Amino acid sequence: MHIISGEVIVTDEQGRVHRLGPGDMAFFPAGSHSVWLVTKEVRKLAVCRQSMPRPLGFVLRAWNKAFYRLTGFPTGNGLGDGARVDAGGAEVAAA
């Protein structure tokens, strides 16, 4: 997590207190618990990543590929697997 603006005081599981302000970065492992005291409105950039078991990832990719071949439409996974179309409806080559 990256603090863009504002200030927060975070108390971790061990009772340690950390002040986070603009430009500070912090990592919170999966399953961790903390208490936040927001002293100034906080704007932050946070990334949540959860890994997927390899067999499930393979099945999902196969499903997306089959769906696209059958319908001609991407499944909307946000990875850009479908054809790109400009505002006029013309197909655009991938970079």
The largest pleated sheet is described as: 3 strands, antiparallel
Q: Please tell me what the overall shape is.
A: elongated
What pattern of helices and strands is seen along the backbone?
EEEHEE
Going across the biggest sheet, name each strand in turn: 2-1-3
Reconstruct the topology from this structure:
Blueprint: E1 2-11, E2 17-20, E3 35-45, H1 54-71, E4 84-85, E5 91-92
Antiparallel strand pairs: 1-2, 1-3, 4-5
What does this structure look like?
Strand 4 and strand 5 form a beta hairpin. 19% of the residues lie in helices and 31% in strands. The strands form two sheets. The chain has a three-stranded antiparallel beta sheet, with no helix packed on it. It has a domain of 44 residues. The two termini are 30 Å apart. It is α+β, with helices and mostly antiparallel strands.
Which terms would index this structure?
3-stranded antiparallel sheet, two-stranded antiparallel ribbon, 1 helix
Brief characterization of the structure:
The protein has 95 residues and is an alpha+beta fold. It contains 1 helix and 5 strands. The chain has a 3-stranded antiparallel sheet, with no helix packed on it. Strands 4-5 form a two-stranded antiparallel ribbon.
